[in-house]
């Protein structure tokens, strides 16, 4: 093989100089095509904001959930915590969990069958058995359980969910809760790699140590720093983790966009999100608005909404057809 002299090589390079390489030299990024978009339909974020008009009655939960399921949401999160309906009832205290969830799920199942995943809160009840009754009754497919809640509740709750064939959704509100999940659930062997995680951050708290101690997010840099850190730490603990990120607080639109860019799943909804964007005071109008916006963002980023069965497969549940 004949090689050019130094000066011939310089001349050849100058003659063929191009500022950039061929476009084909860039490989595709490893971003999943599908994105599971769940919707938390409770109107809790609008508490005290008269113009919000968010869902608080059971019938409003049903109507709002129906809208987003029809539009392509793979699942709905139903939570009555701190919600007072138009009749003055505290839905998390004045109705038994199985009864309350049944009032929402029965009409949804009648209409949509298994076309959505039921994600139910299991935190409310006068006893442990009442808390987990929606799982034992076969109503829940997924149920969140925060790593930072008292250990005496978290450990048996996660075990009970698994025994009932429910996917425990490991909630973390801050970096510290990732470590709690590691120590309490993974180091003990209760949960193994490939778990179902959900990050809910960027909400203010009123005490230095609470059941949902959070992360302060006051600009795009802090938003991104916290999210990248928590995702990285989760994957150190659980390399095969399935991670969902909630839209929350003023940052909700930005969180949804960044999480979609990162290849994660998202949960939107009026339960945690009041404002349309962090630099204004306009409020979100409905759950369908939030879902549609998330779906549009995902499409612009090359991702499509996962079906209910695609999401079930992700989190280790059997498809229901």
CATH homology superfamily name: Aldolase class I
CATH architecture: Alpha-Beta Barrel
Order of helices and strands: HEEHEHEHHEHEHEHEHEHEH
Secondary structure class reads alpha/beta
Number of helices: 11
The CATH class is identified as: Alpha Beta
Overall geometry comes to elongated
In percent terms, what proportion of residues is strand? 5-15%
Distance between the termini: 63 Å
Using the coordinates shown, work out and report the CATH topology: TIM Barrel
Biggest sheet: strand arrangement: 4-3-2-9-8-7-6-5
**What is the mean predicted local confidence, pLDDT?**
94
Q: Helicity range of the residues?
A: 25-40%
Number of strands: 10
* Main sheet record: 8 strands, parallel
Structural summary, described in words:
This protein has 321 residues and is of the alpha/beta class. It has one domain (35-314): TIM Barrel (Alpha-Beta Barrel). The chain is built from eleven helices and ten strands. The chain has helices spanning 6-15, 58-71, 97-112, 128-131, 133-136, 151-163, 175-186, 220-237, 252-261, 287-300, 308-314, and strands spanning 34-35, 37-40, 75-78, 117-120, 142-146, 167-172, 196-199, 242-246, 265-268, 304-305. It has an eight-stranded parallel β-sheet with strand order 4-3-2-9-8-7-6-5, with helices on both faces. Helix 3 links the parallel strand 3 and strand 4. Helix 7 (175-186) runs parallel beside helix 8. The N and C termini lie far apart (63 Å). The model has no long low-confidence stretch (mean pLDDT 94).
């Amino acid at each position: 093989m004949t090689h050019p002299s130094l000066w011939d090589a310089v001349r050849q390079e100058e003659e063929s100089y191009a500022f950039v390489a061929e476009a084909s030299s860039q490989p595709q990024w490893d971003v999943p095509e599908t994105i599971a978009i769940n919707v938390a339909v409770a109107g809790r974020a609008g508490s005290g904001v008269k113009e919000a008009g968010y869902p608080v009655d059971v019938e409003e939960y049903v109507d709002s959930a129906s809208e987003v399921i029809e539009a392509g949401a793979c699942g709905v999160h139903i939570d009555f915590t701190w919600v007072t309906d138009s009749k003055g009832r505290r839905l998390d205290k004045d109705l038994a969990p199985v009864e309350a969830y049944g009032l929402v799920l029965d009409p949804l199942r009648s209409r949509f069958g298994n076309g959505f995943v039921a994600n139910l809160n299991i935190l409310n009840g006068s006893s442990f058995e009442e808390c987990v009754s929606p799982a034992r009754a076969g109503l829940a497919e997924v149920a969140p359980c925060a790593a930072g809640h008292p250990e005496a509740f978290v450990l048996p709750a996660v075990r009970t969910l698994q025994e009932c064939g429910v996917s425990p959704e490991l909630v973390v509100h801050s970096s510290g809760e990732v470590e709690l999940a590691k120590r309490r659930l993974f180091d003990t062997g209760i949960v193994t790699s490939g778990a179902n995680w959900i990050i809910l951050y960027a909400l203010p708290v009123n005490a230095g140590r609470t059941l949902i101690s959070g992360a302060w997010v006051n600009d795009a840099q802090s938003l991104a720093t916290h999210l990248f850190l928590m995702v990285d730490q989760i994957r150190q603990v659980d390399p095969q983790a399935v991670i969902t990120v909630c839209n929350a607080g003023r940052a909700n639109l930005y969180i949804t966009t960044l999480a979609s860019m990162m290849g994660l799943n998202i949960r939107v909804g009026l339960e945690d999100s009041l404002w349309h964007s962090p630099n204004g005071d306009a409020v979100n109008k409905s759950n369908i608005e939030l879902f549609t916006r998330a779906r549009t963002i995902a499409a612009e980023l090359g991702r499509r909404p996962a079906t209910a069965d695609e999401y079930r497969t992700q989190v280790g549940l059997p498809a229901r057809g």
